[in-house]
Amino acid sequence: MNVLKRLTPYSGLKVLISGGASGIGEVIAAAYLEIGAKVHVCDVSERAVSAFRERYPEALATQADVSNSAEVKRVFDMQREWANGLDVLINNAGIAGPTGGIDRISDTEWEQTIDINLNAQYRFAHHAVPLLVESEHAHIIHISSVAGRLGYAWRTPYAATKWAIVGLMKSLAAELGERDIRVNALLPGIVEGPRQDRVISDRAKQLGISESEMLQKTLNKISLRRMVPPEDVAAMALFLCSPAAHNVTGQAISIDGNVEYL
After folding, report:
1. Domains of the chain, earliest start first
2. Which 8-state DSSP code applies to residue 63?
3. CA-based max dimension of the chain
4. CB neighbours of 247 closer than 8 A, spacing ≥ 6?
5. Are 31 and 234 in contact (CB under 8 A)?
6. Contact between 189 and 259 (Cβ < 8 Å)
């Protein structure tokens, strides 16, 4: 048995990534492009989509608001026309949501976080399954968070959606297994990048401390005392699309250096 060969992702994969024009989504997209996959990303930001097109002309990039059902349907219409099928859905789109006490969070902030982080994952899975049943390597990868296994004070809308995504994944894994569609969730920890910088800044202001103090407090929560580079998340996504992961489904997989608490 050639174990190393089994670690190589399947060739010719058709991949759709929501929220894929920047951040973790872009890094995942670049990883799939590197192995020769046919990659389609969508993103709400026209600027991010334009920049993605310039960086990766071989991919398809579509501007779409994942909270809009009609726009999500349009993404899948384009997927059918461009790729004539789908093997892998990366359900990635999401926002950080508000930072604040539950008594200070508005209905609008709460509902927006739920709609983008959770309802959009339903919308994409809903449209993806009819395409995935035709694939030999069908897989849905939901992007959750370490906040999907730990409580997260002052970030309740975000944490609520990330826990719900794990429940969605577990349910779909059971529902779709007999149709040979694998479903897993990745739970990134504290990921390096501008988004985490903003989270640290907002939390520092809320606590009345400096950003450097907040950063150290953040690192002290992690057993390895370091943040996660987004490439680590992409690498796990690629592994899940290899023969070595053929029987991996229904799993919430943390890539977080062991965050002990939030």
Report:
1. 11-189+229-255 (3.40.50.720), 193-227 (no CATH)
2. E
3. 58
4. none
5. yes
6. yes
**Residue 178: DSSP 8-state:** G
User: Token match 């726009």: residue?
Assistant: 71
Beta carbons of 233 and 195 less than 8 angstroms apart: no
pLDDT tens digit sequence for 138-171: 999 999 999 999 999 999 999 999 999 999 999 9
**Is residue 46 classed as helix, strand or coil in its secondary structure?**
helix
72 vs 178: CA distance, rounded Å: 26
Is the pLDDT assigned to residue 74 strictly greater than 80?
Answer: yes
Question: What is the token pair recorded at 86?
Answer: 């789908």
Bridge partners of 40, per DSSP, are: 16, 60
Are 59 and 52 in contact by the 8 Å Cβ rule? The answer is yes
Residue whose entry in the numeric block shows the structure tokens 């060739």? 11
Of residues 147, 145, 146, the one with CA closest to residue 159: 147
226's tokens: 């370091």
Both tokens assigned to 57? 């002309």
CA 95 centroid distance within chain: 11
Please state, in angstroms and as integers, the Cα–Cα distance from residue 207 to each residue in 103, 150, 157, 201, following that order.
Answer: 16, 20, 19, 10
Predicted TM-score (pTM) of the model is 0.94
- Which residues sit opposite 63 in a β-bridge? 43
Tokens for 234? 């992409």
Residue 256's closest CA among 231, 234, 226? 226
- Strand ranges (DSSP E) for the chain? 14-18, 38-43, 60-63, 88-91, 139-143, 182-188, 252-255
- Rounded distance between C-alpha atoms, residue 61 and residue 71, angstroms: 13
Residues 204-262: pLDDT tens digits?
A: 988 899 999 999 999 999 999 999 999 999 999 999 999 999 999 999 999 999 999 99
